[in-house]
Amino acid sequence: MNDHLVQFYEDDVFLIKGLSDYIGDALERGDKGIAIATSSHLDMLHESLGARGLVDAQGRSRDGSYLALHADHMLPMFMENGLPDERRFRTAIGNVIRQASERHQGRVCVFGEMVAILCATSHCSLNAVGKHDAAIRVERFFNKLQRQFDFDLLCAYPLNAFPAAADAPMFDEVCTLHTHVLPAESYDPAASVQTLQRTIAALQQQAYSLSTEVRDRRLIEQALREVNIDRLTGLPNRNVFQDRLEMDIKKAHRSGLPLALLFIDLDHFKEINDTLGHQVGDMLLKQVGQRLQTYVRESDTVARLGGDEFTITLSELHNIDTVTKVAQKIRNDLAKPFLLGNELAYISASIGITMYPRDALTAGDLLRNADQAMYQSKDNGRNRFTYFTASMQEAAQARMAISNELRRAIDDDQLAVHFQPIIDMASGQIRKAEALVRWLHPARGPVSPVDFIPIAEHTGQIVTIGNWVFRKALAHARRWRRVDRQLTVNVNVSPAQFYHTNGENCRHWLADHSFDTGGGTGPPEVGIEITEGLLLASNSAVMKQLLAFQQAGIKISLDDFGTGYSSLSYLRKFNLDYLKIDKSFVYNLEHDAANVALCEAIIVMAHKLGLEVIAEGVETEQQYDILRRAGCDYGQGFLFGEPLPPDAFEALLHGPPLLTA
């Protein structure tokens, strides 16, 4: 029976000594020696064999009884598709052994450095089976060759090829494929006490190294926990959420039970963070995380993705009605007050829900769907939950297309500014205009501002558009001042323009353009229109910029009054100049006594606070008469004129009053 030996080693010196004895003894007996190893190990072997006079400086024997094969060169010869191939192995190595066995009278002793065979070259990558499994394949190929040809084999592995406890089964299998397992260290029963003491000291050192490794591993595990856990809330972070969602998808696939993903975004969190401070905002996020954990089972996952965004994964659902119940409970509970130190804070939540496998099959698609459904909850008024539908994906793709085309529209001059007249209700004269951006798409035709302004705000393109509208409006207003020295053109300023750059772009408006702050030529040529949401945020940078506008004499109008929070406190807090009654109150005014009462109340209240009133959406003479009699100062709507290109608006300025009392 042929020997198939395996040698485990820790250092190269021990390996080369054993290899030199194995090959050298064979050559001295007159046998054939074949060594398959790395170039560096072959060089060390040849130096050792040369010292015994068995090979020359080039590693060649005089009688041809020794053959060196470089593992770097052999590996590509028997690999196919990243795996050792038996047919190619027989051609590359088997034929060498066969010829040696047939031509040589004595024994053939082969050495194979297994890890070198499989790992020595960088241009031969292994398939997913891994280096261990590939080595097992080669060992089995050798065993088959030994049943056909007469040769002994010594294979060598470094112990660091099996570094973990999980490698023990593979280590055992390697051992079972060999007839003898040689010890990793030489042992001499007659060794001196000093030698044994040194061996014991070495074992103690190894034990100390192992304890150090265990301590280091614990530190690594602790660091991994910190990396995977959100430090503020103690919840799993985005990385863990992603991993667990993928695991839950696999479980759902095996069990056939659906799972639900809830994407939760807090409404008005930014306002609390800005007004009460980041520490209070952090307290709120912690309490939200605690409340969310009470709604789910231990098998479910609550995670914080970042900011005020949370997710809940409900896995293996036996009853999908559970999803609606959980979402409803979250919505109701998060609407209850939060005690944050000495402050009571109120928020709500917009929730998006998607289902596996109904809506999507991958973690990325599920997260995208839940995010889109959450934004639909925002658009529908917040403080609600919405299930994902395919139409949301279509709408998201349409928004993306509009966003991409809007970038080209800015560069290709597809945008234009139109001006809608605002008249003095007493005289019928045009006293103001609102600058409104219009988009004429070369293929789509006119694109409604309702469709592209929200997208521009979300992407930040509104900053570029807003600056461009401001420059155009100012240029036209200065031209029209030659006709009417009191005329003012109002420009809409989106909250996104302030938040995106903390008002930096708006500061440039004052720095880059000289405004007449009074004098003999009337007020500044432009005014600005803002929404209630901007005031509600009370961001210090925003408030500072509004104050700068006021100090420059620029008039500020509060747009769409009555549709938002309509907090009367900020009407006293901020020095506004105009209130604009939203068109929803003016619509059907002549047939709705309640709306008449509301408009009259707004007008009286505004006048008491020193504000003038502009009514939007005036479309009939009856509405005009009701508002004029109620004391409304200005009117805007199709009754007086639709938004017009600059030339058409200028023609109106030269004409007679639009209406006479």
Automatic annotation (TrEMBL):
Residues 257-390 form the GGDEF domain. GO terms for molecular function: catalytic activity. InterPro entries: Biofilm_reg_signaling, EAL_dom, EAL_sf, GGDEF_dom, MEDS_domain, Nucleotide_cyclase, Rev_trsase/Diguanyl_cyclase. Pfam families: EAL (PF00563), GGDEF (PF00990), MEDS (PF14417). Gene3D superfamilies: 3.30.70.270, EAL domain. Residues 399-657 form the EAL domain. PANTHER family: BIOFILM ARCHITECTURE MAINTENANCE PROTEIN MBAA, DIGUANYLATE CYCLASE DGCP. This is EAL domain-containing protein. It comes from Massilia atriviolacea.
